[in-house]
Design goal:
With 386 residues, the protein is of the alpha+beta class. It contains 4 helices and 23 strands.
Length: 386
């Protein structure tokens, strides 16, 4: 509408023409009606946003439920304890050195028992299938028969002092005693190896050190110091050591040992036996013969008195091992069995070694096999850290 038209209408209105005012009122009514429609639409949009917000709130609640569920799973199922327990053979299933008659020495694979004072013997003891004292249906445990009280301990050396450095470490294991006593201490030691810094020993905090007669569950934690500024040499390790009370005599058993990071300890969970066996073989291997038809290796005669046999380990070892050949042995060359005069172990490394064996009446270039003689014969390979 032009300014001129508006002016004429105003003049007419001033002269008493009411038609223009009616038009204006009608237009205003239409505008009001349209605003009402807009408000109605906005209210509808607000309602839809309320529905969306309500749905989002429901989604948030569902996500909270999922997060809580996952948290509960994570709390109850600790991946570190299930897959990366640094303790090897923590359930004492593997005994390559034998099962009884041990003193202050290695017994079960990776486990070392010592009587710094007092007297004890160590052995494998089987659990009764279906027993309920120790959970998880363990097969066996390490038992110490302490006849003279003293400083009696059981330990494992965990390869590499970097393990759990500057972290909180927690542990969980089961222990047996005949009568009430206590765990004297749990020690976590940082040994920096040959050519490294001086060892550092830290006493762990036990949740309950006192023991009742029978099986007891032991838990606790330790703040492992930082290794900043330390020098790490060869053969470094982290020590896990358990000492029973120095006044105790009787049977002291240990089973189901677990270590995990953090201030919460988790129960032991076994690895597959094939994997556990390989972990043990990194540190100790043994070829054992109790029968005449068990063969150790095949080789070739270099001369009439010298025969050479290669030995390839089951898996690579931690370091070049100490090799012990415990006879009797015999050579089978062709159809003839020959006695062994001497064995020289040579070319020892992490993967293999060689046996230079002297005998008599050999033929150069002739093949031969090495077998056990009467009685128990074995060749052992020891790459333990101690």
């Amino acid at each position: 509408m032009s300014m001129e038209t508006d002016y004429l209408k105003l003049v007419k209105h001033a002269a008493g023409d009411e038609g223009w005012a009616d038009d204006m009122n009608n237009n205003l009514d239409e505008i009001d009606s349209r605003f009402d429609n807009v408000n109605s639409n906005l209210a509808s949009i607000d309602a839809q946003f309320d529905d969306i917000n309500s749905n989002l709130a429901n989604f948030d609640a569902q996500f909270d439920d999922i997060n809580n569920y996952l948290t509960n799973i994570d709390t109850g199922f600790n991946w570190q304890s299930y897959s990366s327990n640094p303790i090897i053979n923590g359930d004492f299933r593997i005994w390559k050195r034998g099962t009884s008659g041990f003193g202050s020495e290695y017994n079960a694979d990776r486990w070392l028992s010592l009587a710094n004072s007092g007297s004890m013997t160590a052995e494998r003891v089987a659990f009764t299938p279906g027993q309920t004292n120790v959970p998880g249906e363990p097969e066996a445990y390490l038992n110490h028969n302490i006849t003279v009280a003293g400083d009696i301990l059981c330990a494992q050396l965990i390869e590499d002092v970097r393990t759990y450095a500057n972290q909180v470490l927690s542990f969980d294991f089961w222990t047996y005693v005949d009568s009430p006593t206590s765990i004297e201490k749990i020690t976590i030691g940082q040994n920096f190896g040959t050519g490294g810094s001086e060892p550092v020993y830290t006493q762990a905090i036990l949740d309950e050190p006192n023991l009742k007669a029978g099986w007891n569950n032991i838990t606790g934690y330790c703040s492992v110091p930082s290794i900043a500024g330390k020098t790490i040499g060869t053969n470094s390790y982290l020590l896990f050591r358990a000492d029973v009370a120095e006044t105790y005599t009787g049977n002291w058993g240990i089973s189901q040992v677990n270590i995990n990071p953090g201030s919460t300890s988790y129960p032991f969970k076994p690895r597959q036996i094939a994997l556990e066996e390989q972990l043990c073989q990194r540190y100790y291997q043994k070829i054992l013969s109790n029968e005449l038809d068990t063969y150790f290796s095949s080789g070739v005669s270099y001369s009439s008195t010298l025969c050479v046999f290669p030995i390839v380990y089951s898996i690579p070892m931690r370091a070049a091992p100490t090799v012990i050949c415990n006879g009797p042995f015999a050579l089978v060359a062709g159809t003839v069995v020959k006695g062994v005069s001497s064995i020289l172990v040579e070319h020892i490394n992490e993967w293999s070694c060689g046996l230079a064996i002297t005998a008599s009446n050999l033929s150069g270039g002739q093949g031969a096999v090495l077998r056990g003689g009467f009685g128990e014969s074995y060749i052992s390979f020891n790459a333990e850290l101690y």
